[in-house]
Design a protein that fits this description.
2 domains; Penicillin-binding protein 1b fold; 22% helix; disordered N terminus
Length: 144
């Protein structure tokens, strides 16, 4: 028998995988709250948190809101929920951007040598930041 996952359960699981902290009331990025049919999420992508209101298993509304008074600021058609990318270590990034392109894609580079050097420079700077403790995070991802 196949397990059916609701949209709200999927959202909750995703937030847990992104290491968001479940709290009573959100007040900073990386937190979420669940109260009845309402899920509040403070993504790292915005200045204000979002309130997602479910009706049964469907999203009824999405609004940004002020953390001080909990009042809605504006309605949203869609939102981006982004984890704290500074908490992601180099070992966790295993996918090449080309993995997401269709097989028939054609890539064109004006100066491949410059691009390669720039990528190597960024990679080694990131390794140095990770070694010095400026970047931390999990060393592996477990997918179940």
């Amino acid at each position: 028998m196949e397990k059916v996952v609701s949209k709200r359960d999927f959202l909750t699981e995703m937030l847990q995988e992104y290491n968001f902290e479940r709290v009573e009331f959100v007040y900073e990025p990386g937190q979420y709250s669940i109260r009845g049919s309402i899920v509040d999420v403070f993504s790292f992508s915005g200045d204000l948190p979002y309130r997602i209101d479910f009706f049964s298993e469907e999203v009824d509304s999405i609004r940004s809101f002020n953390t001080d008074d909990q009042l809605s600021v504006s309605a949203q058609n869609q939102i981006q929920i982004i984890p704290n990318i500074q908490d992601i270590s180099i070992e966790e990034i295993n996918d090449s951007f080309t993995d997401f392109l269709p097989p028939s894609s054609i890539l064109w580079m004006e100066d491949p040598y410059f691009i390669k050097e720039k990528m190597n420079s960024i990679y080694f700077q990131t390794l140095q930041r990770e070694d010095s403790g400026q970047i931390s995070g999990r060393k592996e991802i477990v997918i179940t």
